[in-house]
Write a structure and sequence with these properties.
Rossmann fold; binds pyridoxal-5'-phosphate; 14 helices; Cysteate synthase; seven-stranded mixed beta sheet; alpha/beta; five-stranded parallel beta sheet; 2 domains; 416 residues
């Protein structure tokens, strides 16, 4: 028996449980409608706890999952009385066991499980680094084949806390190609026989996996937070937090107000920030990301650089910002670095660059009065604990099996 159906957010057409990324009538997002309307926590140590609202049949058995705790030192510094940290990474002292150190692992488990349950054999994805590492790890654990296309700048992020397996096929793109070039090449590889595209934000397993950060927070706090802070590149995390808030609202036990999305990008590459400042649904490349490739090269948090984010599509980030009366911030590298060292010294854990951007945005919000002292705030520290991990594990680099010169090169030459 199925556990959910998929519903098109534009035309309302419904589909049964399957690996489906698009509606046959239009290009809107599909959303999962779960038959369990109330969140019933399962007796699992990690993400499998949230089985009610994950689009898989079998419960996910792993100790990797989101954790939420109430900040003391950092909150005091900011003068906030209800600041909660959603932490995705490795921090065993707080029972955080995501060994690839980012919330992308929360996307990878349900995505790979859904692929397996729907008969898929090999999944193809593009990554700026963290997503690829997460999927490679789950591939090493499950033996399911993954083809990961990564720009040269992301290759050093493709390490694992275990020996790489033959199920991981890493394709490196030579310098000069960025994340969006990787997306374009992955799209072509995914059309080869036997390959399934993972679909990015279009894949409900990815969104609902990431949405568990919001679920964990609501369960820990006892209510939907007033504000949700995260740094975004594709915006998938923001969309996921919004959708999770909607499910929690409909559950009825966690309050009736959606969390206000307060999302950030890293200067100079801030296309969604620019479009949202003018309340535009469309990103206009000439206005919002002029000289995109050059801007991307200058961006500190490289995983936040997606030239084709799911922003204007029905059910995408623009809709999420409208529905939650959201705010976007543009953060400089200097602000991010300052915020990173402040957070790390007060909270006692190292954080990744996109999380530093999110922390900086919270500092800006406090300064600008966009949050009140007693508001309940969820700060999604979506990646961290890399230094902590290295104390406990020997990390192995994943070796590339092929190098691509550009997104349009003949696929036969890749020999994969
Ligand atoms: C740690 C971390 N934070 C934030 C992001 C941005 O995520 P998204 O834009 O998909 O929500 C990423 C993307 O890889 C990430 O790895």
């Amino acid at each position: 028996m199925g556990r959910f159906k998929l519903k098109c957010l534009k035309c309302g057409r419904e589909y049964d449980q399957e690996h489906r990324l698009t509606c046959e009538n239009d290009d809107s997002f599909l959303r999962t409608e779960y038959f369990e309307k109330k969140l019933e926590l399962r007796n699992q140590p990690g993400i499998g706890r949230f089985h009610s609202w994950l689009p898989v049949q079998e419960e996910l058995i792993t100790d990797a999952g989101p954790i939420t705790y109430k900040s003391e030192a950092f909150a005091r510094e900011l003068g906030l009385s209800n600041l909660y940290i959603g932490f995705s990474g490795y921090w065993p002292e707080r029972s955080a066991f995501i060994k690839t150190c980012s919330f992308k692992e929360l996307e990878a488990y349900p995505t790979m499980q859904l692929l397996k349950e729907t008969g898929g054999k090999a999944i193809v994805l593009a990554s700026a680094g963290n997503t690829g590492r997460a999927f490679a790890h789950v591939s090493a654990l499950t033996g399911i084949d993954v083809y990961i296309v990564v720009p040269d700048s992301g290759i050093s992020s493709l390490w694992l806390p275990e020996e790489p397996t033959e199920s991981i096929h890493l394709i490196r793109m030579s310098p000069g190609n960025d994340y969006t070039d990787a997306i374009n090449l992955a799209g072509r590889i995914a059309k080869l026989p036997g390959m399934v595209p993972e679909g990015g934000a279009r894949n409900v397993a990815r969104r609902d996996g990431m949405g568990t950060v919001m679920l964990d927070a609501a369960v820990t706090i006892g209510r939907i937070p007033d504000h949700y802070f995260q740094a975004v590149g594709s915006g998938t995390g923001g969309i996921s937090a919004w959708e999770a808030s909607i499910r929690l609202r409909d559950d009825g036990r966690f309050g009736q107000k959606l969390a206000k999305l307060q999302l950030s990008q890293n200067l100079p590459f801030v296309p969604m920030y620019n479009a949202w400042q003018e309340r535009r649904r469309d990103i206009i490349p000439e206005l919002d990301m002029k000289n995109a490739k050059k801007q991307i090269e200058e961006t500190y948090a490289t995983v936040l650089t997606n030239r084709a984010p799911p922003y204007g599509v029905t059910g995408g980030l623009y809709d999420a910002l409208v529905d939650t009366d959201g705010i976007m911030y543009a953060v400089t590298k200097e602000e991010a670095l300052e915020a990173k060292s402040l957070f790390e010294s007060l909270e006692g854990i190292d954080i990744l660059s996109p999380s530093a951007v999110a922390v900086a945005s919270l500092l800006k919000a406090v300064e600008a009065g966009k949050v009140s002292r007693d508001d309940t705030i969820l700060l999604n520290v979506a990646g961290g604990g890399y230094k902590r991990l290295k104390e406990d594990f020997n990390l192995s680099q994943v070796p590339p099996v092929a190098t691509a010169t550009d997104p349009d090169m003949p696929l036969e030459e890749l020999n994969i």
